[in-house]
Design brief:
Elements (H helix, E strand, L loop, with lengths): L14 H14 L5 E2 L11 H11 L14 H15 L9 E4 L2 H12 L5 E6 L3 H9 L3 E8 L5 E2 L1 H6 L5 E6 L12 H14 L2 E5 L23 E6 L12 E4 L2 H11 L8 H11 L3 H24 L3 E2 L7 E5 L7 H12 L1 E2 L1 E2 L10 E5 L4 H9 L2
Parallel strand pairs: 1-12, 3-4, 3-6, 6-7, 7-8
Antiparallel strand pairs: 2-9, 4-5, 8-9, 10-11, 11-14, 13-14
Length: about 375
């Protein structure tokens, strides 16, 4: 009998992978499921993006292997984007590495910097992939609490009390997923100082900055951040290109070069046409963000109405693609609560528990659902 690697004992199948099979089964039985669980944009990329890809497909030189570092004009587009949106100056030749989605960057960074037994600071609640990748590479997850009473920001006194001697990486993501907490430059300054003090690689996962957020920020805006920090970003949410798998990692040349050593052994470059589409997306003007946010703002208002109809208390300060809400008093299990809604009302909502123990007592609604579907969900109650 062929046995699996021991590393698989440390991870479970991704929650949405298994739960969506359950949803599809209900759909196959004729149930009309409204999926408010996942953050997969249902809107389209801009016309300019589609046209750029269509033109690239006809380019006879566009079908071979591409550079591991991406097209020079793509890296320049990413650098210009960061300069325009955040005021962050990056050298496109050695401080930017395009990725096939920022999710792969989590694995590449972990492989580049973590040895077996190294410790990793992971937010609770936070993106589950931080934990699964940490386990897969044989490192040790160490969770730090984020709580509503502290605006979903780290408690630095509590962090300083941890044994930090083996900590190599600290993951964070602001705007925060799943809560939508914005963070602040003052918080980023504290985090950079903390990382420098303890010689920790700080990684900010930043795909939600431009969704319903009037003050987009980058960790790299902090003076000296490049000495200890990387930032991941993505075109998935900002430009409705989730399935295209275009992301980036940004930081100082030595750290980027270490990530490139891993990445260059994992793939053979991003398809030329997708890179051309990404360049067009990065050149979108301010009206693109404004138009997208008009749609998401209407959806958020309706989704908050739905949450309140369920007796939930909405976290009103949240930005990004989700609505985070506290369950009514007396509800003991978020998972039981959402399962009852799934099977009785045929609406799929995400339980906060999949993001960590501090997610118990909360649920998360995606805004990647058309207004008429949210209204239908409200009507089902």
């Amino acid at each position: 009998m062929i046995t699996t690697a021991k590393r698989l004992d440390t991870v479970e199948e991704y929650y949405f992978s298994s739960k969506l099979r359950e949803v599809r089964q209900l759909q196959s039985e004729g149930k009309s499921i409204i999926n408010m669980g996942i953050g997969s944009p249902d809107l389209s990329p801009s016309k300019a993006v589609i046209e750029a890809v269509a033109a690239a497909i006809l380019d006879e030189n566009g079908h071979g292997y591409q550079s591991y570092q991406g097209l020079p004009e793509l890296r320049k587009g990413m650098a210009d984007f960061y300069q325009d949106q955040f005021g962050v100056v990056l050298n496109p030749n050695n401080e930017i590495l395009p990725l096939m989605g920022s999710k792969e960057g989590i694995m590449h960074i972990s492989l580049a910097f973590l040895n077996e037994g190294d410790h990793v600071l992971i937010p609770n609640p936070g993106y589950p992939t931080y934990t699964s990748v940490t386990n897969l590479v044989g490192a040790v997850p160490v969770y730090y609490d984020l709580k509503e009473a502290n605006a979903w920001e780290p408690d630095f006194e509590a962090l300083e009390k941890l044994d930090l001697s083996k900590v190599k990486i600290m993951w964070l993501g602001y705007p925060h997923m799943p809560t939508g907490a914005r963070g602040s430059l003052a918080l980023f300054e504290k985090l950079v100082a903390f990382a420098k003090k303890h010689n920790i690689l700080l990684v900010n996962d930043n795909p939600y900055s431009f969704v319903l957020n009037d003050n987009p920020m980058s960790l790299l805006q902090v003076e000296g951040a490049k000495e200890v920090a990387l930032e991941l970003n993505s075109l998935s949410k900002t430009f409705n290109m989730a399935g295209w798998r275009v992301g980036m990692v940004l930081g100082n040349p030595e750290i980027i070069d270490a990530v490139l050593k891993v990445k260059s052994n994992m793939d053979s470059g991003m398809f030329y046409g997708i890179q051309k589409g990404a360049i067009a997306a990065l050149n979108c003007d301010k009206s693109w963000f404004e138009d997208q946010n008009k749609i998401y703002r209407r959806r958020r208002e309706l989704t908050e109405k739905l949450a309140e109809k369920l007796g939930c208390e909405v976290y009103k300060e949240g930005v990004g693609l989700f609505v985070w809400a506290k369950l009514p008093e007396g509800i003991a299990s978020a998972e039981k609560f959402i399962d009852e809604i799934l099977y009785e009302k045929h609406i799929f909502i995400t339980p906060g528990t999949i993001f960590g123990s501090n997610g118990e007592g909360y649920i998360r609604f995606s805004l990647c659902v058309k207004e008429e579907k949210v209204e239908e969900a409200i009507d089902r109650f």
